[in-house]
Amino acid sequence: MRYGPAVRRRKLGAELRRQRELAGLTSLEAARAVGWHQSKVSRIETGASGVKPADVARLLDAYGVGDTELRALLGALCGAGSTEPGEGAGARRGWWYAYRNRLPPAYLDFISLESEASRLSTLETTVVPGLLQTPDYARAVTRAVLGDPPPEQVEELVRVRMARQKVLQREQPLQMCAVLDEAVLHHEVGGREVMARQLQHLVETGSSQHVRLHVLPFSRGGHIGITGPFVIFSFPRIADLDVVVLDHLTSSLYLERKEDLRAYGAAFTTLRSQALSHENSLEFIAGFNDGA
């Protein structure tokens, strides 16, 4: 288990090495092409040191990589979303750049991965996933987690959460599949009215082509997900960049090994098979809300 930045450096380095090899260059030839020492290329490829978005762009130029989607993804892995302006071609700032001094680095890291992922698979055991929360629900969750923080801090965090949800509204939206333990529906976060609106929002959002919800009823008994929630980020075309995120109160841990990805992928498949179908889940949520 590693923290986000270390995972990102390793995955970025591995992909840059692959692109160099596809270009038929040695690390020495690559270094000469961009005017560096060979040791710098080696450190980047092994994940031993960080790299600026402008340097990634220089390497990709040297390797003849013109794929804009791939360049954007690799830019996100090196933190292009939080880079300073003027760092060269390919240094793209994400919307979260404006919050770089007010949000924890781990959260910024999570947001940048979320913004470039093509698919998200998640198990939630207590709360509605952030991408599906209403503002009032998000407000209540934030207050509960942070212990009555200043109102201005709450509102800023809610704005960030709402901005994150744009990944579900873009031209090629994030494909999201969520397994929700029935407990998620029982926790009256923010009170009955707030929860009723949140459940209605789940039904409405779940009607989208790119969002799939699966409720895991209490009647299913024990299941593999009782150990806790998790998120699996999958990226376009490059499976080796996939990562599992385990969220804790004060930090997030990232699992990147192939055996971990296989284990969590299999666990998610099992959970989804044990849960209600998407259609039955929407009916279950709507019925639950009507009976509340």
Q: If you had to describe this structure to a student in words, what would you say it looks like?
A:
The protein has 292 residues and is of the alpha/beta class. Helices cover 49% and strands 11% of the residues. It contains twelve helices and six strands. The chain has helices at residues 4-22, 27-34, 38-46, 53-62, 68-77, 105-116, 135-146, 151-164, 183-186, 192-205, 258-274, 278-291, and strands spanning 119-124, 175-181, 211-216, 230-234, 243-247, 252-255. A hairpin with a 4-residue loop joins strand 5 (243-247) and strand 6 (252-255). Helix 2 crosses helix 3 (38-46) and helix 4 runs antiparallel to helix 5. The longest helix is centred in the N-terminal third of the chain and has 19 residues, at 4-22.
Instruction: Report on the biggest sheet.
Output: 6 strands, mixed
**Helix-strand makeup class:** alpha/beta
pLDDT < 50 stretches: 81-91
Helix/strand order:
HHHHHHEHHEHHEEEEHH
The spatial strand order of the largest sheet comes to: 3-2-1-4-5-6
How would the global form be characterised?
elongated
Q: Count the E strands.
A: 6
